Amino acid sequence: MDWSAYxxxxxxxxxCRHCGKASMVPExxxxxxxxxxxxxxxxxxxxxxxxxxxxVEKAKPFPGMHSTGKAADLAVVGxxxxxxxxxxxxxGFKGIGVQQKGTGRFIHLDMREQPAIWSY
Length: 120
Prior knowledge:
This protein is an alpha+beta fold. It has helices at 26-39, 55-58, 79-91, and strands at 44-47, 71-75, 95-99, 106-110, 116-119.
């Protein structure tokens, strides 16, 4: 994948902490870059690609969207989270998870086929 096509992100931000791969899908990265361009401020990726053997994925009944390369978690808080959510919906992200309590606040975005919104 040509990471230079996504000037606001770097490959290392998306690497699986278990296997070291960053097997992101270009279509997802294009949409994420569009979000960042519209948002106009830095976005911190707290979780990108996770292989099927990553402990978080292994704990699930079946691997989730992170293991497809079509998901990322972005560290955002408060009003910034609302801004990111509005843009994400406009761009067609269909999987949206919100964790805005306690430490480790983030927004999960993915490109699943059926719309889903949840909180952690």
